[in-house]
Amino acid sequence: MLILRAADIAPSEITPRELYQRRREFIKAGLGLAAATALGGGVLVPRSAPAATPAAEPRRFDGVRKGPFGSDEKPNSFKDITTYNNFYEFGSDKESPAEYAQAMKTRPWTVNLEGLVHKPKTLDIDDILRLAPLEERIYRLRCVEAWSMVIPWVGFPLSALLRQVDPLGTAKYVEFHSHLDPRTMPGVRLPVLDWPYVEGLRLDEAMHPLTLAGVGLYGQALPNQNGAPLRVVVPWKYGFKSGKSIVKIRFTDKMPQTAWMKANPEEYGFYSNVNPNVDHRRWSQAKERRIGEFRKRQTLLFNGYAEQVAGLYTGMDLARNY
Ligand code: MTE
């Protein structure tokens, strides 16, 4: 294993503040870059990044209806959800995305749908917002770093967007490409990942009714740090499978090579379904810490969505297909 870390401690074993402090010490010691290829090992962005511009008045959505599958758990606070983020393009500590992502322009914004489809299209985000009725869905988000949150997303089934281009019968997978702009994204100046951030799903996973095209949270448009103006939300997988600020969706017949698989294939598999019985190479996945709580919770298979999604993996060895 080539990865150097401040310490081989599971992120769940220590509080975020302590982790953050340790990272700072570690970076100061000049060992930072090697820590970069693992979630939970952070690199702080240089503070010469463009100054954040004041955020515009948040756009609120009208007529959002309650969608299916929602959890009745208490959502995390707006503050927790919007200030404790993973968005490596803006830095790999938890605080940088809220600060630097304000410089990302989310209008005009288009999404290219291409690859193995009958009708490739470039869609404007404001047309995407009108494709289907917006729903609120309160989903658990379980990060591979062994913390979790409950988030009241606003969105619509991703299948409504994917159907716009009429996928060919040969399309088996979907790739999601995130926005990449080195001028506004200080994190991409460091070789943390092979940018742009690319994630992928099997087509049936992407079309599953639980999978959301996320466009907001707490009734308003997504804050930039949460992946404005459009992100994927796949609640039964570790959070990194849910790409933010999507600009391209590509249908393929081959399993996509995602950014995390390229960075560290032994630690980040294609499926990355939440599974308390399959540990990360360096820490247990049996428990998680809900942000805002101290006691740990038991992690649930498929993040508690087994009833809906276990059938997608019938006959598959989940330890091998991690
Ligand atoms: N998408 C992009 N483009 N870049 C990222 O660094 N981080 C992922 C995922 N999507 C990430 C991303 C990870 S590791 C997690 S846990 C979730 O976003 C975090 O989403 P949140 O910050 O809205 O809670």
What does the largest sheet look like? Answer: 8 strands, mixed
Q: Point out poorly predicted stretches.
A: 1-36, 47-51
- Report the CATH topology name: Sulfite Oxidase, Chain A, domain 2
Q: Which structural class should the secondary elements be placed in?
A: alpha+beta
Oligomer: single chain
| Tally of separate helices | 8
Shape: globular
* Ligands: ligand MTE
Please report which band the strand proportion falls in: under 5%, 5-15%, 15-25%, 25-35%, 35-45% or over 45%: 15-25%
Please give the number of β-strands.
13
Q: What does the average pLDDT come to?
A: 88
The CATH homologous superfamily corresponds to Oxidoreductase, molybdopterin-binding domain
Text of the CATH class: Alpha Beta
List the secondary-structure elements in sequence, H or E: HEHHEEHEEHEEHEEEEHEEH
Descriptive notes:
The chain has a single domain, classed as Oxidoreductase, molybdopterin-binding domain (Sulfite Oxidase, Chain A, domain 2, Alpha-Beta Complex), CATH 3.90.420. The chain contains eight helices and 13 strands. The protein has helices spanning 16-28, 78-83, 96-100, 125-128, 158-162, 203-206, 259-263, 306-309; strands at residues 65-66, 110-115, 121-124, 135-142, 147-157, 173-178, 198-202, 212-217, 220-221, 231-233, 246-252, 287-290, 296-298. The strands form two sheets. Strands 1, 4, 5, 8, 9, 10, 12 and 13 form an eight-stranded mixed sheet that branches. Strands 3-2-11-6-7 form a five-stranded mixed sheet. Strand 4 (135-142) and strand 5 form a beta hairpin. Ligand MTE binds at residues 39, 85-89, 141, 143, 178, 197, 226-227, 239-240, 242-245.
